[in-house]
Amino acid sequence: MCGIVGYIGKREALPILMDGLKRLEYRGYDSAGISVFSGGKVVTERAVGKVAELENKINGKKISGCIGIAHTRWATHGKPTEKNAHPHCDCQKNIFLVHNGIIENYKELKEDLEKAGHKFSSETDTEIVAHLIEEYEKQVPLKEAVWRTLAHISGTYGLAIVDQKNPGKIIIARNGSPLVLGVMEDGYIIASDIAPIVCYTDRVIYLDDGEMAELTDESHKITNFKRKKVEKEISKIDWSVEEAEKKGYPHFMLKEITEQPEAVENSIRGRLVAPEGIAKLGGLRDVAEKTRHLKRIVVVSCGTSYYAGLVGKYMLEEYAGIRTDVEHASEFRYRKPLLDENTAVVAISQSGETADTLAAIREAKNKGALTLGIVNVVGSTIARETDAGVYNHAGPEIGVASTKAFTSQLSILALLTLFLGRQREMSLVTGKRIAEELAEIPHLMRRILKKANDIKMIAEKYSEYSNFLYLGRKYNYPIAMEGALKIKEISYVHAEGYPFGEMKHGPIALIDKNFPTMAIATSDSVYEKTLSGIQEVKARSGKVIAIATKGDREIQKMVDDVIYIPKTLEMLTPLLSVIPLQLFAYYCAVSKGLDVDKPRNLAKSVTVE
Ligand code: M6R
User: Fold this and answer.
1) Which of 106, 114, 164, 98 is nearest to 137 (CA)?
2) pLDDT tens track for 26-78
3) Is the Cβ–Cβ distance between 233 and 378 less than 8 Å?
4) Which residue of 350, 397, 398 sits with most ligand 1 atoms within 8 Å of its CB, as the best mutation to test the pocket?
C-alpha cells in the first residue's frame, strides 16, 4: 500500500532509490516518482504506471546526488495520474515529500491553505502536508515546521521529506504506516519495509508511531512528536538478499508456492517435540499461565490470513476444546465486541502491518484481552504491539497473492492447537499423532509440487471459463474460499467459495455446463457427503475438477478431472489441498498473460483502513 524509499549518505542515491522501488513495487504500482538533490536543487521525476515507466523516463537524464526520496503509489485519493504521483511539493517547489497512508482531515486543511493563498497541483490528500510545512517554515526552522504540521494532520502516515532550502538532511515521520530505517556503514536507507534494505545492511531501527527522525549522512536523531529525544535499539534482520529475489523463477508467486515445504519446515523447526506430543512456543512462554486458563479465542485477520483463521477455528475447537471465533478485522473494531480477560485475541498477518488487523488488536487491548500475533514479518507493528506471539519464519513473501505465508500460518495454528490442547485435555497419543503428521507435511507437499505440470495442463484446459464455484466441507471449506480468492486476485475470474452443504441453498442455481466446480473431496470424515454434493453438480451438467486423496479411484468415474494429494490427518489436509488451488490459479493467470505478481488494483500490504 504505497512504498517509500529514501537514501542519504555517500553513494549515488538514484540507483539505490530505483532498486528500492522495484523491491517495494508489490506495495503499489499505479505510479512512481523520485526526488533527488542534484546539482544544488531537487530534481523530481514522476510517471504513471509501474516503476519501469519511471525508469524509461529517467533513462539518459543526468541526475546525480547522494540524497533522495522515492515512492510507488497505490492510489487512494485521486486517480493514478502523473500529477497525483509522489513526490508532492509546496508552492515554491522547495519541500518535496513522499507519503504512505491517508491524511483524514485534508479537506479542511486544504480549504484553509487555499484561503491563505496556496495553490494545489494534485487531487491528493498528501499535498497538503508540503503546503502546511511551507506555511510554518515562514516562521520557524524546518524541523519545528514539520512538528507543527504533524500536530495538525490526522490519519495515518509514513513520511519522508526533503527541503531544497535545507540541503543535507531528510526528515521522516511515522504514524500508523510502517517506516524502517536501515543503518549503513556510510549513510542511511529508509523504506516502508525491509525488502529494499536487506541489500545494503542488516541493521535496522523500527520507527514507532508518533516518532520522527532527522537524518544526515552521518547521524540520526529520533524524537517523538512532543519533541523529546527517543533512544532506539538497532535490530538485526535475519532475511537474506537471496530470499528476497526470484532465483530464476518467472514469478515470485511460483517461487513462493514452491518454497512451501521449506517454509513449513522453518515454521515448525525446534517447536515440535514429537515424542512428548507437545509444541514448544518460545514466544508464548511468558503468557503460558494465562493461556492455560483461556476460555475463548477470537482470531482477527483479513483476506488469506482470515481463511487461515477459519481453519484454525476447526483445529482449536476440535482438538484443544477452546471456543474460537474468527472475525474480519475490518468489522471487529466497528461493532462492540464482547471480550474479557479470559479471551485471547489472535491477530494473523503475513505483513504485520495490515491496518484493519492492527486496529482490531488495539481495540482488543483496550478491552483488556490478551493479544497474540501470528506474524511473518519480524519487527512489524503487529508483532511489536501484541502481548506475545509466534513468528512464521516463512521468509519474505513478495508475490501479492499470499501462498507460503498461508501454509505457514496453518502450521503455526496446528502448533498452537497442540500447545493449548496439551495444556488442557488432549491426550499424549493425540498430541504425538498431530506432531508426527505435522512433521511429515513438508515431505507430502513436495510430492504435490512434483505434479505441478499436470495441474498446469488442467488449468490451461479451464482457463477460458469466466466463472467457478469452489466447494469444500469442514476443514476444506476455508480452503474453497482461499482457492476462490486466489483465482479472483490473479486471474480476474469470478469465483464463489462456498461450504459444500450450502450449495443447494442457492449457488446451485448458477450451475450449468459453463460454470465449473472445483470440489475439494478428500477422503475424510465428510467424504461421503461431499460425493453427494458432486453428484448434485453433475446432475446439472456442471463440470467438476476434484481435489481427492491419492488412491481414490472411485472419484475418477464421477468427475471431469482429478488432482490427487497425499493422505494426512484430516486437520492438516488444508496444508496440502490448497497447493493445487494455488497452482491452478497461477497457471490460469499465466495462460491469460496476466502480471501474476502485480495483479491490478491490489497491493501486498494494505496499510489503509
Ligand atoms: O499481511 P496480511 O496477512 O495481514 O494481509 C492480509 C490480506 O491483505 C492478504 O492476505 C490478501 O488477502 C492477499 N492478497 C491474499 O492473497
Assistant:
1) 164
2) 777 789 999 999 988 999 999 999 899 999 999 989 999 999 999 998 877 77
3) no
4) 350
Q: What are phi and psi of 204, to 5 degrees?
A: -135, 155
Task: Name which of 482, 177, 162 is nearest 305 in CA terms.
Answer: 482
Q: Which atom of ligand 1 is nearest to the CA of 606?
A: 8
- Is the domain covering 3-237 a CATH 3.60.20.10 domain? yes
Closest ligand 1 atom to 405 CA: 3
Using an 8 Å Cβ cutoff, are 51 and 27 in contact? no
For atom 12 of ligand 1, the residue with the nearest CA is: 303
Instruction: Report the nearest-CA residue for atom 11 of ligand 1.
Output: 303
CA of 157 to the centre of ligand 1 (A): 20
The Cα 130–Cα 144 span in angstroms is 14
Q: What is the mean pLDDT of residues 572-589?
A: 98
Regarding the domain delimited by 451-593, which CATH topology (the fold level of the hierarchy) does it fall under? Rossmann fold (3.40.50)
What are the structural domain ranges in the chain?
3-237, 242-444, 451-593
- Same fold for the domain at 3-237 and the one at 242-444? no
pLDDT tens digits, one per residue of 371-413: 999 999 888 889 999 999 999 999 889 899 999 999 999 999 9
CB of 402 sitting under 6 A from ligand 1 = yes
* Active site members: 2, 604
Alpha carbon 93 to its chain's center: 35
Distance 345 CA to ligand 1 centre (A): 18
Overall fold of domain 242-444? Rossmann fold (3.40.50)
